[in-house]
Amino acid sequence: MKAISLVWLARADLSNINSGQGSGNLTELKTYSHGRKPYASGQSVRRALFDTLARTYPDKFKCLAEKPCGDVENCWACDLRGFLAPKAGEGGDRRWSPLKITPALGQIPSEIVTDMLTRMSVFDKEGRESKDNRIAHVQLAENIYRVAAVIDVENIGRVLEPDIETKGTGKQKEEIFNGWKPVIEVDKNEKRKRIQAVLDGIYNLSGFAKQARSATSLAPEIVLITIQDVYNQRGLKALELDDSGQIDLRALGWILDEHQALGYKDIFGFTPGVVNNENELLALLKDKGIEVLPVHNAFQQAKNLVAEAAL
Ligand SMILES: [Zn+2]
Fold first, then answer.
1. pLDDT at residue 24 greater than cutoff 50
2. Cα 305 to ligand 1 centroid, rounded to whole Å
3. 273 CB neighbour count, 10 Å cutoff
4. In this model, does residue 303 exceed pLDDT 60?
5. Span 45-67, pLDDT tens digits
6. What is the mean pLDDT of residues 248-269?
């Protein structure tokens, strides 16, 4: 097992996630697709995931992002989040996060709401944001969001350094690069614990509490979990919705076929009432021989595979 990729859909109201000043200020809501659809940045989804993890494992998260301790062996924050820490002397210490996370992209365009927004005055005479405008923002932010993540299983709890051999002396001296050698490698059970914690963190993804006063969750309601023996980010396009809330089944079928051909293991978690073509979706999964599980079971099955994996 080299990687676990996850793509999921969640119904959410993200009106406050991207706003700086709490629930009063909704003006920073981001949109894409010519302002038709809302999104939350990958950065804010990451922060939510790490907040969720830190709340569950306070003793394992030994530092804050602003002041990384750099102890990958013992600190889950530094291992999973990665860091850039200035070093005394020259250069710095850098770790790339073994978790890649996409922005949360709203899937359903809100033409009517956008139209409302452009026609309405944004502020009233006293300079306050108009109430109607706020309502429009909230409506725009209510959507089905698609998020994808890849867990780089191999590099969790591991730090590599270049293995450089010096040969000869004086002018004949040369440095030979012999590849990479691990300088930190946590034991396999510790590694399993960290991977399983990340899976739980995604399942429970709700760390937006600090920014939003209302409960906001991007926890998966429909999820495709893929266990891969190669690291790549190929499957992340799965579960795209069209404007009417239907999953693109042609693309999904294509991706599932590819996974099967490559020997990847797909696990599908499902909640009824999220997408508009669920009967066709379930028929496709049956046709591809993929069992449809309640979302918590899908995550449990992935965690079981991590527990059994040789790594
Ligand atoms: Zn740390």
1. no
2. 28
3. 8
4. yes
5. 998 899 899 989 999 999 988 88
6. 96
What would the mean pLDDT of 6-30 be, rounded to a whole number?
63
CA 99 – ligand 1 centroid, Å: 16
CA 184 to centroid of ligand 1, rounded, Å: 14
Cα(255) to centroid(ligand 1), Å: 37
Rounded CA separation 16/137 (Å):
10
What's the gap in Å between 74 CA and the centre of ligand 1?
8
* Structure token pair of residue 287: 């046709």
How far apart are the CA of 72 and the centre of ligand 1, in A?
Answer: 7
The SS3 call for residue 249 is helix
Identify the three-state secondary structure at position 35.
Answer: coil
On the CB side of 172, how many CA atoms lie within 13 Å of its CA?
3
Mapped onto helix, strand or coil, the DSSP state of residue 5 is strand
Of 203, 223, 204, give the one whose Cα is nearest residue 215.
204
Distance CA 64, CA 78 (A): 9
pTM (two decimals): 0.85
Residue 52 Cα to ligand 1 midpoint, Å, equals 16
According to DSSP, the β-strands at 30-32 and 83-86 are unpaired
Judge residue 310's burial from the number of C-beta atoms within 10 Å of its C-beta, 0-12 exposed, 13-18 middle, 19 or more buried.
Answer: exposed
Report which DSSP code applies to 247.
B
Cα 28 to ligand 1 centre (Å) = 31
Which one is predicted more confidently, 303 or 115? 303
217 within 8 A of 10, measured Cβ to Cβ = yes
116-128 pLDDT per residue, tens: 555 555 555 666 6
- Ligand 1 centroid–CA 308 distance in Å is 28
Of 247, 285, 243, 287, which is closest to residue 268 (Cα–Cα)?
Answer: 285
Domain-wise residue ranges, the chain: 3-308
